[in-house]
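Two quick folds needed for the group meeting slides. Do the first one here.
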Amino acid sequence: MDYALLQRMMEVQGVAGRIVIDRDEPAGALRPMLRESGQLPLIADNLLEDIAGNHLDRAFDVDLREKAIPAAVAAKTVSLPFSVR
């Protein structure tokens, strides 16, 4: 993932902090300013993409010779809940 895109297009809702990226950008993490616990939503904008140009709003590795282009998802963001203990 691209550092600048992650900064603009991903957040843990309700948690103040910053996203840090490992050397050469293979992985990243949110470093919260305060310790949080409970059920939290990770929110990502559909325009977030990886180095190959894959987006969250469409299927990856679609053979366009066999299938029609999938319709775009109507939502602008994707939410993934997770738990912090």
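Then this one, please, same format:
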Amino acid sequence: MSPGGHLVITTIACAATAAATGSAALTAAVAAGGFFIDVDHAIDYVLFDGQRDLRPQAFLRYFLEGRVQRAVLVLHSYELFALLGAVAWWAQSPLLLAYLFGALMHLGLDIAFNGRVTPYSISAFYSFGYRMAHRFDARALLGMSVQRLEGGFWAQFFQGAPALEPLPETVVPRRTPASSSTS
């Protein structure tokens, strides 16, 4: 989903949380999980891809044009959500539960909308172990080629990435079940 889409949906979820609970802390936790979870994209951009252009336009274009080299995305993982869910249950933490609500909403939207921009399994992509098994190689994980985008920052912020062309099969082979041979 586009960053703007996450912002709009998270704003609605935060308004509902504030109206239902009256708690600024719970509302902030939903916002952290629903929108600010994407801070891990910035961490990947700087630490793992070595990018230094911190202008919002450059950062957004880098992702939307399919230029990402490493997809570590530690906050976008089933494994972290399971761990946080266990801690929230054990600690009986409403704040952690509110964060998880926002984060699960974010992840569900990512799976629903980002699946259209990759020829590979978007559901598997959100497993940290799966990404690690592929050495966090974004091209191998997502199978996309680089494409130039048109339009200004706000259009890209709210529209997100268009469906990208997959890499040729010779570059990133699709995984297929091993065929059994009969002798």
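Slide caption for protein two: The chain has ten helices and no strands.
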